[in-house]
C-alpha cells in the first residue's frame, strides 16, 4: 500500500481526476461470475457457447429466445446479489472527492447504483441490465428490464413471458441494454466520448478486477499513459493491465482482492483529504 499511498498523495495535490476503471472482478465477491471464469459458458442443446459467442447481436438475430434465456438467468443472479465492500468503498471515495472522482465500469449488474454511487460520475460503458430496448431500434427509449420470475440455466419461457420480451411500440424482440461483443461503442448508450474525456483528465487511474480484454478500457489506459499520468492495477491475478503497469515508469500493480484493497484506499483518501 505504501507505493499506492505515495501515488494518491501526488494525485490529491493535483487538479486531475482519480478514476476507477472496474470490471467483473469487482462483483465476483458479490457472487456474480466473471466471463473468463468457469461459469461464463451457456449451453444450447448439447453445445457450450462462450460469452463471446452467445453475447453477440448476430446470435440475438438468429436465436433471440436462447440469448434472452441466458440474460434472464444472468439477471436473476444479479438481482439476488448484494453490493460488496468494494462497491461501498467506491461510494465513500466519491463522497470524499466529489467531481474529482470518476467511475468507468464495465459491469452491467446494477450494483454501483444499489451501493449508492451517483449516475452523474459513472460511465456504464457496457450498458446496464436494469434496462431493455427495442432490438430493431424502432426507438432509442430505454424500458425497465422485464420483470419475469427468477430463472435457472434450464428454465424455459412461457408464451406470456415471451410477450413481455417484445417491444411495446413495434412488437419485435426487445434486447437487454448491453454492448454485445460484435458491436461498437457510442456516446448515446455507453458514454463513449465522456469516458474518453475522463481518461484525458485523469491524474491517477486505478484498473480493478478487469482482464483488459475490451476496447474502451484499453484505450482509457493508453490515454492515461500517453498523458504520462499514473496507473495502478489491482487484481487477484496478473493480467494485461498489470503487465502494462509493471513496465511503465508511473505504474504499479498490486495482487489483491478488490473488496479488501478498495476499503484501504478509501480510508487513506479520507485521512488525507
Ligand atoms: P473478465 O471476466 O474478463 O475479468 C475479470 C478479472 O477480475 C480477472 O482478471 C480476474 O483475475 C479478476 N478478479 C476476479 N476476482 C477478483 C477480485 N475479487 N478482486 C480483484 N480482481 C478479481 O471481466 P472484464 O474485464 O470486466 O470483461 C468482461 C466483460 O464481461 C465486460 O464486458 C463486462 O461488461 C462483462 N461482465 C460483467 C459482469 C457484471 O456485470 N458483474 C459479469 C461478467 C461479465
Ligand atoms: Zn421496437
Number of strands: 11
Broad structural category: alpha/beta
Bound molecules: nicotinamide-adenine-dinucleotide, zinc ion
SSE ordering: HEHEEHHHHEHEEEHEHHEHEHEH
Instruction: Give the CA-CA distance, first to last residue.
Output: 17 Å
Residues in β-strands, percent:
15-25%
Q: So what's the overall shape?
A: elongated
**The biggest beta sheet, please?**
6 strands, parallel
Report the average pLDDT across residues.
Answer: 96
Question: Which residues form runs of ≥5 with pLDDT under 50?
Answer: none
What's the arrangement of strands in the largest beta sheet? 5-4-1-9-10-11
- Gyration radius from CA atoms, angstroms: 19 Å
Compute the number of helices. Answer: 13
- Percentage of helical residues? 40-55%
Keywords:
273 residues, binds zinc ion, binds nicotinamide-adenine-dinucleotide, single chain, six-stranded parallel sheet
Provide structural commentary.
- It is a single chain.
- The protein has helices at 2-13, 24-28, 51-54, 57-62, 64-80, 85-97, 111-115, 159-164, 187-190, 192-200, 215-226, 240-246, 258-272; strands at residues 17-22, 42-44, 47-49, 101-105, 122-124, 127-134, 143-144, 174-178, 202-208, 230-235, 251-255.
- The strands form three sheets. The protein has a six-stranded parallel sheet with strand order 5-4-1-9-10-11, with helices on both faces. A three-stranded antiparallel sheet has the order 7-6-8, covered by helices on one side.
- The protein has 13 helices and eleven strands.
- The protein is an alpha/beta fold and 273 residues long.
- Helix 1 crosses helix 13 and helix 10 runs parallel beside helix 11 (215-226).
- The two termini are 17 Å apart.
- Bound molecules: nicotinamide-adenine-dinucleotide (NAD) and zinc ion (ZN).
- Nicotinamide-adenine-dinucleotide (NAD) is lined by residues 23-25, 27-29, 32, 34-36, 106-109, 126, 209-211, 213-214, 235-237, 239, 257-258.
